[in-house]
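Sample 1 of the test manifest.
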Amino acid sequence: MNTWKLEEHELDLSNLRKQESLFAQGNGYFGWRGTFEEGGVPNSLEGCYLNGFYETFPIKYPETAYGYPGQGQTMLNVMNAKTIRLEADGEPVRMDPDKIREYHRELDFRTGVLSRSFVFAASGGKSIRVAVRRVVSFVRKHCGAIAFSVTPIDFSGKLTIMSALDTKSSNQNADKDPRIGTHLPENCFERIETGRNGNTLHAVQRTIRSGLTVACAAGHTVTGESGCDYTCGEQSLELAFAFDCVPGSTVEFEKYIAYCGETSLCGGDGDPLTTVLGETEAAAREGFDVLVSENESYLSRYWETAGIEINGDDYLQQGLRFNSFHLIQSVGKDSCRSVAAKGLTGEGYEGHYFWDTEIYVIPSFLYSNPEICRNLLEYRYQCLPAARERAREMGHKNGALFAWRTINGAECSAYFPAGTAQYHINGDIAVAVKNYVQVTGDAGFLEECGAEILFETARFWRDLGNYSEERNGMFCINCVTGPDEYTALVNNNFYTNRIARENLWYAHSIYTKLEEKNPRRLSELREKIGLGPEEPQEWKRAGDAMFFPYDEKRGVFLQDDSFAYKADWDFSGTPKEHYPLLLHYHPLVLYRHRVLKQADTVLADFMLDQYISDDQIKRDFDYYEPLTTHDSSLSVCIYSIVASRIGYLDKAYDYFLRSARTDLDDHKGNTKDGVHIANMAGTVMCIINGFAGVRQYDGRLELRPLLPGKWKSYKFRLRFRRCLIEVAIAGEGVLLTLLTGKEMSLVCWGRTLELTENNPQMVPLNPADTAAPKEERIGIL
Ligand code: BGC
């Protein structure tokens, strides 16, 4: 098995949609599903998406209420410029399994190139060899290209290559499954302009409601053609090139494509049409191979820090690389967009951004690509005005409430019990700011954007919760939904209260630091958001008094106030085909029972484990594990990480297995709608935070590495402040090497190490050998 590639040796149309998601390409700006250039295959889902490019539509509620979001947003399937159709003496070359021989397809994680080759058996015993390479550029964010090469094996005659820009595109319609489809009208675009200039086609469209412009251009490099026809219809613009061929002669055909779309937060990159025309021309001038080699350098830098090597398990190694590759393909790399739940690989969840970004994707990039994390957080900063507006709408006099699901910053979740009620999104963003700042030391970001996010979210918590006399004056947050979507609208969700406290405390501590270090910026900020002098102290007081439901009898943290009183779910009486439960039971039935869709308390125990003993984590894990269905793909990775922490290495490994190949092996049965980005990030976290036990507490890096029995060794790199270290874990121990930087201090299995240049250090794997001091971890509860 080549662990750097995803390969397919047979043309199997039965799993076409799933394969189209797996073979999808993207660069965080735009993405293409892995469809065949020829099209025309039944069941295929064509998909060209621009991250953050969307249409709005009115959400129709048969029974509405105050504050329900009025507008939905859906990432649009835009014009398809990939289409290339081939005819041999008038016979179309189709992806028909009966006529295709020597089929091979692969996606290379080191170049990002999707290659496909086959021999087409045409009628009359003629055969043609076709090889297609396609690339989406990581360096030129608007650009992609296709190199199409055709060789008649045993006939002379006429070959025609028709290259189109299909201007008619639409999204999938809503389905019974709430995770797929949209309610968009069929046509979302008005045509602004279409045309041809030489061998370049272009089209400009504008969305009807959101008013965003998208332009696309497709230029062609062709040699040896005997003619070229242009047609322009309602559905597409097309150039047909004719070639006179003899056996063995190869026609090389290249198509250079660029997309440019506006977003409501940032506009476009200049005039979209001028941009795409300029970009296609520049790319064509450089040539296909240059685009590939630029990608190769980009990705080799990526793998240098983000690559994780496992020695002893190719199957998992491939899964891990595949997931890391899709992450870099999907994540927005400027502050105008984030990362959709399915990346740019499909239409599941309508291209919306969720907490998946802050709690999964950012942690997975935190120690390898902090620049990406900063961009993602800056995107949230740009959403602050919308979040403030939403807080006012929700009845809060100050502060900001970020949207549970969104593209442009406004809330567009139509089901509030599992949408707006997930207030924890505010704390998720705040904790991501904290981790980013502490790992990078990026004071500039903190002062420019981070502090404002922290202050506004802290104010919101203070206003959302209340001190309850019945609870001895403790601070309670009522009527919220935590991460587990099989429980809704509860009081004192443990995760929410935990993350809110962190948000309140950190906002207070940053306020105090700014008072000392940058009072000018602080007073600017205070003025900008009208912050009263008594407010920061109030944040601290609310955090200190935060209430956490605890079951004394079992010694576990309760997911919420009601959890202990709920009925048990009849797991043994639930048939296998009833999972995921959300497709078979009314939400109220689920809400009434002790059954979890995904990690909730266990997630808080991982994220904020500085306040809690390992024994407590173990009791919580043992209690919640049998109640958790993992119907959400965001769950198994968290259970793997926590299992590692408490020494359940076999369980950690099993959960990791499930996470690593979720999409490759289609564990959820819905990879056809797009890959599961948060889970992919979770796979990376299983290694870094799970097996290697990496944590950072207030800027101090700690590791507790373990070696799963099935592996000989594994290694990865960590960027921390200005340093880069390599962590290599094998049977002999953990070898820590400082690769960049002068010195770095860290704690490995309780032992403080000072790493210096040319002085690698080895720490035994067995914690008993290092006599790790047991820290007092119980915080203020
Ligand atoms: C999960 C959410 C998640 C969303 C998008 C849902 O199934 O329950 O936690 O944010 O999917 O990935």
